[in-house]
Every structure is written in C-alpha cells, then in structure tokens.
Write a structure and sequence with these properties.
Strand content: 5-15%
Number of helices: 12
C-alpha cells in the first residue's frame, strides 16, 4: 500500500523583466510640455491622478503645477506632505495610501506623481509598492540629492525604530523626470547636501567628476546649477549638465547589474557604512549628504591607516569636501562606541560581513572585511583632529583615546 501522505514539493521559477527610465526634461511645468502627462508605456492614461508634493515645493511651485494640469484638462487631486527626515515614517506612507483610496487610483492607468525631495519620494515609493501589491508611479525629484541619487535608485525606504531606511522595498518607478531648473530655488545647504552624494560617486569611480568638483563645485552651488545669463560670462551650462549627468550615469552603471542587491559588495555603499546611525542620532542636525561626506572622510582615514592611499590624497579629498561647503567631521564621528555600533548594524545589513568599500585611489575602491576596533578608534581620533582644525582649537572626542 502506497503512502499517500509522503512529502511533496513544487518549485516555481520565473523572471521579472525590469525597465525604468530617467528622462532629462527641461521646462517640465510648461503646459506645452507633455512629459508630466505621459504614463509609463505611453499615452495620457485615464482617471484622476494623485499628485503628491512636499511643503516647500507646494509653496514655490504649487500654483504653477496646478495651472499645468488645469490647462491640460487633467483631473487631479493633491496631497502635500512635510519633506523632513523625521517624517519619513509609516504614518506618512499610510496617509498616501488613504489618499490613493480616496481618489480611486487605477491599478495601472492613473499612476500617482510625486514632486519633491528624496524623503517624499521614498514615502510615496513605499506606498506605491504596497498599494494593490504594487502600482506604477512617476517621480519628479526637485532637489540635487533627489536628482543624482534618488532618481536612479530602485528602492524606497522609511525610518523605523531609530534606524534609517529600516523598512522598505524595491520599487523602481517606470519614469523619473529630471529638470535642473528646479534647483534654482533650492537653498544652498540642500545643494551641498546633494553634493555629498556626488562627492561619493566621484571618489568611488570617477576621477574626472572629482576634478570637476575640485574646480567648479563651489561655483555650481553659488549659481544653483543654472544656465548663465546671456553675455554674463558665467559658468557654462555644460559643466552643470556634465556633473549631474556623470553622477547619474555612474550610479546607474553601478546599480544595474545588482539592482536587487544580491551581491552585498557594493561600491555605492561607500559613505554609508558608518553614517546611517550617526545621521539618525544627530537628527535634525545633519542632512543625509552631509553625513555621507563625513563617512567618506572617515573611511578614507581607514585607507590612510592601511597605506592604501597617502596623506596627500587624503588632504586633497578633505579640501574638496570643504570647498563644497561640506564639513569633514562631526563630534558623533569621534564617539567610538557609537561608530562601532553603527558598523555592527551595517554588518547585519550585509549578512555578517563588513564589505567595507575603501579607497585605493581617487576613483577606485577595494573591499575590506577585517577592519579592527583599533582602526576604528584611530579613525575616530583623526576625525577629532579635523574638528579641531575646523574650529581653530582642539575638541574632545568621546572614547577616541581609549
């Protein structure tokens, strides 16, 4: 007699094609420009579109955005959210979901549009990944950080339990629209914040980009990446386009072969090994790109200690950070216990390995898995010396001399 209860198993294997585009679209809010109306796959779609704005975008461009859709006779409902890091929360995700329900969003043909910085884009991205188990959306980043970093990413995330991006999903929107003219109204500090991520990309893979930042970075911030007035003799628009273009292209090149992060050795994690916990503990004092730039310097100190780069290269990258208005250090990067705690959480995130991207030259990295507590302590002490040189007097770093 056969045993009808014997164990059985089934294996299902499939492939999900993923394709999304990042489109440079100057003059996006001109009613004659069709890009904002176009749904993924072409056409204008059907149904009411939900447009999510962050508060600053609504204040600056709300009237123009509403006029754009009104002149194109598109049915639109609006939701405005705060764009600060503290609001990157599950409560804001559910607020978007509630609004999608209220509007009656279709599964495919009326994708929501998010216009704003990286925080709001992350919130909407996670909401879109959950709503009806996933709907398309259109992303319009209005900050420099959003245009060079968030614009390329396939993932979204929110903060939870005191940790950055602890909850999230891989949800690339089919379309992201980049319009450099939005940067004209971005405050200097937010431009420097975006420069933190461009600085990272330059350090890990693009010497040419580093040299552009070295020569033109401060002026790009001063001019807000805008075209010069005719006859003004200002910085050519091609420089702004090249800096933004190289940052986006470099990020895309790194992400495409490893979009779902199955390989946990990622050079784009440079600047993100120690900073996530420091950034969360410092809120709202540090912006994301500011913390990333400090982590880049901290990691470079480890490289110097290993003899992977020399002091001249280290001094050069610190000088470029300062030229971009990015402080190279912060007291929390001198707190050995906190930095070690941050590294321990990173190791969990990287499945038990450090996988630390570390510079071997400007534009090149290797990966380390044997960085010791003593090396961390020495790097913390080095960050303390940078604080002292910035302030003109020594500052004490907690635990740096233990």
């Amino acid at each position: 007699m056969k045993d009808s209860t014997r164990q059985q198993s089934w294996k299902i294997r499939t492939e999900l094609p993923v394709e999304y585009e990042i489109v440079k679209a100057h003059g996006l809010l001109n009613p004659a420009n069709p890009e904002l109306l176009t749904v993924p796959g072409g056409g204008r779609g059907a149904g009411t579109r939900l447009v999510i704005l962050d508060h600053s975008v609504d204040d600056l461009y709300g009237a123009k955005i509403r006029a754009y859709f009104a002149e194109n006779a598109v049915s639109v409902d609006y939701l405005t959210l705060p764009g600060s890091e503290e609001n990157k929360s599950i409560e804001r995700v559910l607020e978007v979901v509630d609004k999608l329900n209220e509007v009656g969003t279709n599964r495919l043909s009326s994708p929501p549009i998010v216009i704003g910085g990286g925080v709001v884009a992350d919130v909407v991205g996670l909401a879109a990944s959950l709503y009806r188990r996933g709907i398309p959306f259109v992303r319009v980043p209005t900050t420099l950080l959003g245009q060079v970093d968030v614009s390329v990413a396939a993932k979204s995330g929110i903060n939870y339990g005191g940790y950055r991006n602890r909850l999230g999903a891989y949800t690339p929107p089919p379309r992201t629209l980049i319009d450099r003219s939005f940067l004209a109204t971005v405050p200097d500090r937010q431009l420097r914040n975006g420069m933190g991520e461009i600085f990272k990309m330059a350090l890990i893979k693009d010497l040419r980009l580093f040299e552009l930042l070295e020569e033109y970075g401060a002026e790009l911030i001063e001019k807000r990446f805008q075209d010069p007035e005719p006859g003004s003799g200002g910085l050519e628009a091609t420089v702004a386009d090249e800096v933004i273009g190289r940052a986006i292209a470099g990020m895309a090149e790194e992400l495409q072969p490893n979009l779902w992060e199955k390989d946990l050795k990622r050079s784009v994690d440079y600047g993100h090994s120690f900073s996530p916990l420091v950034e969360m503990r410092a809120l709202p004092e540090l912006l994301h790109g500011e913390a990333v730039a400090m982590d880049c310097v901290f990691s470079a100190l480890i490289a110097v200690g290993r003899g992977l780069i020399d002091g001249d290269r280290f001094d050069r990258l610190v000088a470029v950070a300062r030229r971009l208005g990015l402080a190279p250090s912060h007291p929390l990067f001198c707190d050995v216990e906190l930095v070690l705690e941050g590294l321990a959480d990173t190791v969990l995130h990287r499945d038990g390995k450090q996988n630390l991207p570390i510079l071997t030259a400007i534009g090149e990295v290797c990966f380390l898995n044997d960085v010791t507590d003593s090396e961390i302590e020495r790097a913390c002490a080095g960050m303390g010396r940078l604080l002292g040189s910035d302030a003109g007097r020594p500052q004490q770093c907690v635990g740096a001399d233990r």
